[in-house]
Structure formats: C-alpha cells, structure tokens
User: What shape does this take?
Amino acid sequence: MITVTINGKKIQLEKPVTILKAASMAGIKIPTLCHHEALESYGGCRLCLVEIEKMPRLQTSCTQYVADGMVVWTETERVVEARKAMLEFLLINHPLDCPYCDKAGECELQDLVVKYGPSTGRFAEGKRTHPESYDDPIIVRNMDRCILCARCVRMCDKVQCASDISITNRSSKSFVEPFSGGRYNCEYCGNCLTVCPVGAIMSRMHKHAYRPWLIEKEVDTVCSFCGVGCSVVLQVRGNSIVRAVPKTGKGLNKGLLCNRGRFGYDYVSSPVRLDSPLIRRDGKLQRATWSEAFIYIAGELKRIKETYGGSSIAGIASGRCTNEDNYVFQKFMRVVLGSNNIDSAAGFAYAPAQKFFERIFGQGVTANSIHGISNSDGILVIGGDPTSVNPVLGLQIRSAHQKNIPVVTIGYMPGLKRFATNRLIPSPFAETALLAALVSELKSKRRLSDEKAAFARDINTIIENIPPVSLNEAGDVCRISPSDINNTVDAISNMTNPSIIIGRDILQRSEGHTNLLLLAALIYLLNGRIYLLSELPNEQGLVDMGCLPDMLPGVRPLAVDSFRRRYDEFFGVEVASEPGMSIVEMIDGANSNKIKALYVMCEDIVFNIPNSRYVKEALSKSELLVVQDIFMTETAQLADVVLPSLSWAEKEGSYTNLERRMQMLKKAVDGKGMEDWQAIAEISRMLGFDMNYRSPKDVMAEIARVSPLHKDIAYDDIVGDGFMWPYKGEPLRHGMSIEGIDIPDAKSLLKISDNDKIYAGMENPLFYSENLSRNSSALSSISPEPYARIGKALATKLSIIDGDYVNISADAGSIELSARVDSDLPENIVLIPNNFGDKGIFNVMNWKINPVIKSFVLDCTEVVIKKIKSAAEEVLA
Amino acid sequence: MEKFLLKNIENPNSADIAEYIKTGGYKALSKALELKPSDIIDEVKRSGLRGRGGAGFPTGMKWAFAAADSKKPKFILCNADEGEPGTFKDRPILEKNPHLLIEGMIISGYALQAEYGYIYLRGEYPEAKDILEDAIKQAHDKGYLGDDVLGKGIRFYLHVHQGAGAYICGEETALIESLEGRRGQPRIKPPFPVNEGFLSKPTVVNNVETLANIPYIMEIGAEAYSKLGSPDCPGPKLYSVSGHVKMPGVYELPMGTTLREIIYTHCGGIRDGKKLKAVIPGGISTPILPPEKIDCPMDFVSMPKHGSMLGSGAVIVFDETVDLVKVCLRAMKFFEHESCGKCTPCREGVGWLRAIIERIYNGSGTEKDIDLLLEVSKNITGKTFCPLGDGAAGVVQGFIKDFRHEFEQHISKQVKAAA
Assistant: This one.
C-alpha cells in the first residue's frame, strides 16, 4: 500500500500511479494541456508542475509517479507562478484570435488562461506566423494556433497507428504537418481533431458555421456505418447536425471514430433525399400522397398473393434499419403475405458464416467483445481487411501488435501491412489449400482432446477425416514459400486463446463452404474466439430478428416444428414450413418469373449485387417492385412505388452490433419520410392485419415475447454502452450437429488457379461503406476517383504505371479506370471498389450461388486489362 | 604530464591501426579480455572516472546499472555529437586517434556484455565519419571486432551513425530517439537508458573522451588512475581553448588545472597584449566568469563553487574589446535555433530572451528589460523538460550577474543618442 499526501489530503493507493492520476482520484484538479487520457504521458506543456517535498525542482505531475510517503503540493505560490509563466509562454506565439476561432468556447487554452493565466502579456515582438492550410478537402490546419502539445501526433502514431503527421521544424518554428506537406494521405479518422485542445486542426465541414455555445442539443447515439456500433454524439442546432463527435473515453470505441463515423453524417442533410412517396404512372415515377401509395401497394400485393400465392412475393430487409423495423418486416412477410422469402445483405456472407459456426459450436459463438482482441494472446485475420471494413475493430489489432501480440494475416490487407508478424498473401482464391495445410500441421502439433461432449467427438471426427495437405502442396497452390507457411504454423501453434477475425471474402468462393469447415477446424484446434466482420450497423439484428429465409426471430430454425408452432400460436396464422429463397435466389427467381413482387426495405440491390445489368433486367420482370429508402437509389429508379424512409439520425430504435451488443439509436433531427416499421404497419392494416404499434418500444415489447433470445428484454433496458449478449434470453446451446457436413476431398483442397488468367476481385475501401457514404460529400471528397488496384508484376508485364488509364472488360461489361500499382498484390488479380456507380466492380463482376451455404460466389470473373492512355495523356486530352 | 588521449597526435598517420599498435595500442583490450566483465566494471568504478560529456556522472556506476538489468541485448552508444559551441575536444580523438575510441568501446562492450556499439557522430564531422569507418574496418580485419574478438569467442560489432545537425541529439535520450529513426527529442526519465534505452533495452551512452579513458584505466590500473588530477574527479582532461589567446587548441592536462594556468601557461596568455575581459569555462551553456574567478580548478566539483560548471571543458576567452551583449545575443540565437520545441518554457521562453537581448543590442531596450530578462529566465529555470532550456536561462543570468553594466551601457548609449 502506498500512502501519498496531496495538499494535506492522505491518499491510499494499491499501486504507483502518476501524481496527476492520484490527485484526480482524490478530487484534486491539476491543470494540464498536453496530457490526454487516451495517450501516453508526454511532459511537454509543463502546466501540471507541482511541488514535491524533498525535491528541489518542480515536477510534472503527468510523468512523476507517486512513492510511499511522498508529500505533494499543487497550489503553492511557486506552483501558481510557474503555471502562470507557462501560460504566458504559450500565448507568445498564439494569435489570440478567439473572436474568430471556431474553438472559442470549448478551447482548453482559453479556459486555462481565463482561470490561471496572466491578465496581460509582456511579449512585445512579432508572433510566429504560418498560413492557414486549406490543402485538404476536409481538414483545415491553422498552425498559428498550435501549442505543440503533440496530442495529434501521438494519437496518429500510437493509437490510430497511421503515422501520417509529424512535428516539422524545431523550436517555436515547429508545426504539425502531414508528410505530404499539403493534403493528408491518411485514414481520415479525424481522431487528431478530437484531441486538439485549441483550434489548430479542425473540420472544414462546419468551419464558421456554429459556435460551441449555440449547440442546442447533444444526442448520444450509435454510428450508422458498420457493424462495430461506435458511440457517437450528434450535436444539433435547429434541425441540422452540426458535428458528429465521439464521447471521450466512452462507448466500446473509447472515444475513437473512423472517417465514416466522424465525417459521413452529412448524407442526412443531402439535397437529394427523398421527401415524398412516388408511384410509377405513365412509365415515370411521380409524386403521390402516402395514402395513395399505401392503397396502391396493398392492392397490388393482395392481387399478386391471390393470383400466384404468397411464395411469389419476396422481401429484402436491411442492415441499416433497426431491429424493430426488421422484426415488423419479417412479420409482414410471413404472417401477412405468407412468404418465407425474406433475406438481406446479411445473406451474402455474414449470416451463412454465423449459421455454420453456430451449428458446430452453439449459438452466440461469435458474440465476443471487441476489446478482447487486444487482450488475446494471438490474432488470425482472414478474408478481409478489418481496418477498412470495421476500422475501430481494426485498431484493436494494431494495438495488439504494439503489445507484441502475434498477428497473422492471410490475404491482401494493406491496413495491417505494418502490424502483422506473419503475413501470407496467397494467389487469388487459393486460401483453401493454405487453411487445409494449417489444419494438417496443427493436428499433429496439438493433440485432439477426447472430450466427453458429443460435439467435440463430432468435430474430432471431421478433423481426422480432412485429407492432409503438406506445406509444399499448399505452397505450390498459393505460390507462397513453404517456410513462410511453416513460420505461420509456429506462430499460431503457440496461441492458446486467439482472436480469429473472419471477413466475407473467404466465403465468397466456390469453396466457401470448405473454407468455413477448415476455419471451424482451426478455431477448434486453437480454442479461438470468432469475430465476423460486419459491413452494416445492424447486420446481426437482421439475423436475430428472423430476416432469413429459414430462421424465425431469435434465430430459431423454421424447420423445427416446435419453434414454428410457437410462432403460429402467437399470431394465429400458420407459417409455411418450407424455407424461402435467399437474396441471391430471389434475383434468379425474379428473372425466371417465379417472383412476381419484390418488397425492398432500404437496400440497393442493383448497386450491391454484382452484374448490375442482370439484376436490373431481373427486377424489371417483376410485376411489383416496392422500395423504401432515403435516396433515389438505382433500385428505387426501377420501382413501381417508392416510399421515403427516415435516416438513422431521424428515428429511434435498436441496433445489434457484431458483438451482439444491443444499442439505442436516438432521434436527433426531423426527417420528411416515415419510419420503416410504420409504413409496413400501415400497409398491413390495409391488408386486414392490424399492427397496433405506437412506437418502436411497442415493437420491442412484442419481440421480447416472440423471440426466446430476447426474452424479457425491455426497450428502456438498453442504455449506455448497450445490452450485451446473451441478454436475459435463451440461446440455443443444444441441437448442434455435423450431420450433412461434407468432408472435402483432397482435390477440392488443392485447386490451382490458372496463372494466365486475370480475375476481378472486390476491394472494400476505407472511405466507403455501402450506399450512405456515396451520398456524403465529405467522404466522396476524400477519395473521389474510381480506380483499379493492380499487382506490380502484372503492371510491369502490361507496362502500366501508377495513374495510367486502363480498360477492364469481362462478359458482364467493361469499365475504364485509373490504375494503382501495388507490389503486395498477387499477379493475377485486379481489385476494384464498388463505390463509384457505373465505374464500380459490379459492372464487370459476375456471380454464382454456392449451393451449400447459399452465399455469393465471386471468384468466377475473368477480365482482360488493356492500357488505354497514360495519366498525362488524360490530362492533355 | 605524459599525454595519453592525444598520444601520437603529431604523427600524420596516427589514425592507422599499425601506428596505433606500434605505440602499445589494443594491449589494454587484451588485458581486459583476461578479466571477468564484472571486474572491469569494478575497476572503472574504483578509478573514479566521471563522464566527460558535461554532467560528470560516475561512469562505473552507470555501467553497473546497465549490467544489473536482466534484459538483453544490451547496447553501448558513443555520444560523438559534439555540438556545444566552443567544444572541439573530441574531434582530435575521432580524427587522429580513432582506435583509442574503438578500443575503449570494445572493452566497454565486453564489460556490459553488449554485442553492438554505435557511434552517434555529429553531422558536421564528415571527415571523422570516413576516418572512423576506415578504422573500424581495420579493427575488424585485425580481429578486434566481429564474430570472434581476439579469438575469445566474444562478438562485438561497431557502427557509425551520422546525426543530422541537431544540438539536442547530444542529450542521451534524444540521441537514442534519433538513432532509432525518430525526431530527436528527449524522453521522459525514468526509465533511464541504462534500463530502457536503445530499442527499449539497457543502454550505456558515454562521451567519446570518457570511452577513450577506458584503455588508460586498463593499462595503468584504477589505483594509479585515481591519483591523477583532482581527487574527486581524477584522470586526464581535454580542454578545448578558443578565443583571444595566443595559442588556441586542444590541451590534455590533468583534471583540475586552473583556468589561469590553462590560459596563461599553456595557451600563452591573451593575444596582442590585451586584457582579459571574461571566460566561458565549459562551453556556451556554462555561466560566464569575470577575470577575478580564473583561479578556480577546472573540474566537476570545484567549478560550481565558483558560479559556473566544467561542462565539456571548452574554454572561450574574451579580451577587453569584446561586446558581451553581442556574445550573449549570439548564444541566445543558438539556443533558440536548437530548442527542440518539445517543452513550453524552452521553446517559447528562449526565443523571448533572444528577442529582448536583440532589442537591447539594437538600442531599443529599456532599463526594465534587464529585469524582464531575469524574470523570464527565472520562469524557464527548473521547469524545462531537459537541461537545454535551463542552460540557456543560466547563460543570461550569468551574463547579467557579472556584466550587467554592459547591458546598461547599451541602453543608456541609446538613451543619450535619442536625447
């Protein structure tokens, strides 16, 4: 026990902490500037100097640790004088342009000077000047105001690990700059903005648009972009969002945000938001009233149901909608329309992967805390770059790397390049051989336990029966040196409870189901914790609410009579026992006229499903297409009726993130649309089925009764950092079975891709997240140009250099893009993002359905690349 | 006194290994390798050797701290970032007697069980870089460096790393940051380099002259060494004398030689028959002394008693013709330029001091400015992150303490002119 006396107050401590920390525990405030709770101590500003008895010099309380018997004084004359002197020094080169500076009112320097500083300055010479930099589209730097606390640099280096900015120059001439000197070449997380105590680094989005004291309300809500579900505060004035800021140290993101969460909110106030229902008349979508639209939809649905039966209707739910929206939607499909054809973008990969792992390991096996990643003893990442799909989760991996935790990455992951201890980049779509080799090697290194549990015996049997693949065989198929694979085996075989992070790419292969099985084997052998990367904020909610063709709310299999009966009894309607169509089957179904009506809630299927031309053709064959959305998407353009819905900032409800944490959305501003559940309830009423919900709270009350998983959950229980799995409900821990899981044969494990062919692959860029980000002018300004990423070897072969324009063509179509050459990319693949409308990958990419797991297969598009012109020729033309 | 550090300095081929060996070079190494590493550390402790970089920390104690840390590997770094204005004492060792430094580093490396040593060389010594690298190659070829030092199964590798011209990189933790490839700024201490230094491993940083003393201690033994020079800080000392003396240069003299003896006996007194006005005894960051104080012995213990410091032993002599306000201004310009910018008082305060002195020098100062100088320097003293800011403030205080009248003359001259 350590006893320290601060200002005469005795404080008992278990272990040594800094004087600053000890003082704050005792309620004694010591002013600071360079100190920030998310960052390591720096000791630069010298504002927190204190007097320690028996020490001649004043000491900085942020760096000095307490020792037993230490006597500290924080308000002696000497300390007060020193503090005043430091503030006087800081103002020497500070412009004191508070009346004009956006930070005034929430500026730490301003507050400190008012409280502790001198009332007048004695510095008579000219100040350092540095022109304000507008080189960047969304971050403005005013280095006159910088007080060189280096918080931004430390945030960038040590927390975001992007290392894109640095202090340049020396002495009072120092300033902070990105290495380019102008535009940032970074991840635009904006966490430097969060920590800047003065107005030196600010967002251009709201420059001179507000004063901090004019903010009328702050709304604690959840980010709308990905499955991490970061806490975010929306600051509102009038009916507009002024800023999105993190809550310092709060939420699962602990005060961090990514570019999308921080800057992407501006889509809410986009001028192209839908503001009225539209009905197609004379071939054109024309404005209509809500009741006209509801009558039209109800009439058409009634007709189609009566003519062709409920199974001719399909519905697509959305991971952007709340649990309440999605619950009501699946109820509408199943109970009102009598169709099990319900799916969503979760069906592309997230839901099949989760279903597979839960079948083997039990329900909830993917519900792991994101913070556990940096506390595990090893990390294996495969199938997607977490730093672009789920950026704040990706930071956990970087943080783990800083703690010397081994990180193994399999696949092309530029965001983890500097943070992987073992980095394997197999040739395109060849991960299967690599996974099989890892399983074979681990099998011999880790003795299979002869556990009593039936499932352990089952999975042991599976693992025993997987054909062995040697390091050399895998090396040949993946074009990786066997010794690199061997080193990876060594690295992972030392892990006792690693985090296994799985992205969707690994499923979207012809051998996607085999990959899942091999991953399950690895997870079992390594005793791993599973994390599934999730691109949508409520992707898990889609699964849990039963927006799947074969699952009822609470993830209860439709095929099990007892679950179905419970559901039937509740609603007094008999639900069909036949599973419905998956999202990919629905498209084929529309194309073959099996699906007559398609109800799409906030999902842009034309844009988000490869081979856009085919999807468009299929949709136009349906007799009724209803689209609810906030924008006139490519899908909405084809619709017969369009209903404007509300964005995430305009409504209430709950989201379930990839940890299965339930969090609340709070309404910040008013919108012109209708909440999705409400529109559906109206149509339902017209079809003779009353849905009498007054608010999402009522919907949640019903969910709590219908879904065994959400048993007894109350809407008002979901507060603060949310409600963690397994809530109060009853996860299915039993009934796991390996029945019907096929053991792959040796041939399917060792498929060699043709080195002469070039394949198209999809890139998930950091600055893009589905449709919303396309409508954010801030995000679009960061990365405005479409591009194709080409491996160095291929580029050399085709004499393509960075910036050249290339034509990429395939059976589905062709596009022209500028090339980005990357030496890490394998030779026979070209990666293209999909966030650029008619310049996106889905204009050329084709797809198949994996018959086993019903997910997309995207490894089937061969492309031809031709150089068209150089960057210079483009400019001169 | 017989010269050791500057032995052979007159020989034009003194940097060649053959010449070095001819005059007994690398014998100390052979002798040291017969001892246990801990015995060498004890020997250095008993010798009383103090670090020659300026702080005068007991070398043996520093080594013992690093040796006691269980982390591995350990590193030995040579601080050859000789950047203190007026200081050029290490340069003759680096350029004329590089093998003495190399031999010292190999012995230190062995004593610390370090396999890698780095010489962090100031960027403005390009010749020294070539000379050192040639010497390292020669030592390597002769088997003094490499996989198997003198066939004893010991490994030691030595590299030269050139600095990029920052004074702050002479501060040991900033030196380490720079060596690791980062911006040269001092680190928070503790942890000290002896526990968490280069690449967070136990690291000893020693000055060139300190390391050059090691072979001498091995050669004559701690007992004999401790009897040389001042009792509390024994050994030979290099004094680099510049300014208005008849024979400026680097002098190897016993530690504790008085300033008077250095100036008048060894350097031939003030040139052109002028009178002595002031002396900066240990490099620009040590307080300036008036002629009355030049009888003090130049060592780490005596100098503080006379109001200054030994520093690097760089004696700068000013005759009666010198405008000390101009000297002070020049010094402040240096400190302002070299402030790393990490901490507030040094970054902002030193520039302010310079601005006030410049004002006085240019004739627009007022009587109040002298008090303001003292107040600003007081606000810097004891509050900076590293000693650089303290040093700068101390210089101003030193100039005003003994030469306030020179500042007043500048002010009154201008007042008169205005009248």
Summary: Residues 350-532 of chain A form a domain with the Dimethylsulfoxide Reductase; domain 2 fold (CATH 3.40.228.10).
